[in-house]
Design goal:
It is a single chain. This protein is α+β, with helices and mostly antiparallel strands. Helix content is 17%, strand content 36%.
């Protein structure tokens, strides 16, 4: 890959150690001749990424998610340095950030293009994209809701539940996983639909194909639905208004080191290693 000549930084100053690490990394970039710009504002100003080769986020997954729409619009890839908790998106560990950013600046990296979800209200006024998930709940917190789901104009079912999570493969390790949904390999082109606390034992996650056009609405005219994208952008549908959900044509570019392994990240973040501390393939032993 080509070396990075222009790099933007987003530093979440509320995260422990992020400001100091941000200063170290911006200095490294400047010392190697890169043109640097930095901000602590998020969401970043519109157009902040225009003309950049990449953007380095120092914070948690939520910080990175705040840049999804701007990154998808500009096509500028994101580098996630973790100063949060789990960090499934901000996969660069703080202690390795200097080494990995140096390699990236020199062009030693790969790009992953992650699929995203798009939604659109029936009126067309409310829409957006999500890297992780779209969550639909009753507007009034704590109330059950009835949600009728159709896929490609075919009735799936009507859920009585606390809400529905529509997840990308990237978001399968987020809210979807907490609600009992499956872990999905990030390059799979599918949508996972997971009910939140359904009032039946027979409801489980449904996996829908990449061309699915999903429609969700509450058939009870007296109730309104709240729609949240990636945990931070929320809008409310009018009573009985339908919401359409589908895979977006836009992709999110993520910078990864050449040795990146999705399942290594999963094993590390979730402690998913069984009884062995040093887990290595054993088929040929």
């Amino acid at each position: 890959m080509p070396p990075l000549k222009k790099i933007a930084f987003l530093v979440n100053r509320s995260k422990d150690g992020a400001p100091d690490l941000g200063e170290r990394l911006t200095k490294i970039a400047r010392d190697r001749g890169a043109e640097v710009k930095t901000t602590a504002r998020f969401p970043v100003p519109k157009g902040y990424l225009d003309g950049q080769d990449a953007c380095c986020i120092i914070g948690g997954d939520g910080t990175l998610l705040s840049l999804v729409e701007e990154s998808a619009r500009s096509g500028v890839p994101l580098i996630g340095v973790n100063r949060g908790s789990l960090g499934f998106l901000t996969t660069v560990a703080a202690e390795k950030a200097v080494e990995e950013l140096t390699a990236v600046l020199e062009g030693h990296y790969t790009l992953a293009h992650r699929s995203m979800l798009q939604c659109r209200g029936e009126s067309g006024a409310d829409s957006g994209i999500a890297l992780n998930d779209i969550v639909i709940k009753e507007e009034k917190s704590g109330r059950l809701t009835a949600l009728e789901v159709q896929a490609d104009e075919e009735l799936v079912t009507e859920f009585l539940c606390d809400g529905l999570i529509f997840s990308t493969p990237t978001g399968s390790t987020a809210y979807n996983l907490s609600a009992g949904g499956p872990i999905i390999e990030p390059h799979a082109r599918v949508i996972a639909m997971t009910p939140i606390c359904p009032h039946t034992l027979s409801n489980r996650t449904v996996i829908l194909h990449e061309q699915s056009r999903i429609t969700v609405h509450n058939p009870l005219a007296s109730s309104r639905l709240s729609v949240t994208l990636d945990g931070h952008h929320t809008f409310v549908l009018a009573a009985s208004e339908k919401l359409e959900i589908f895979i977006s044509e836009a992709k999110l570019p993520l910078v990864q080191n050449r040795n990146y392994s999705h399942f290594s990240v999963v094993r590390t973040k979730l402690g998913w290693i069984g009884g062995r501390k040093d887990l290595k393939p054993s088929l040929n032993r």
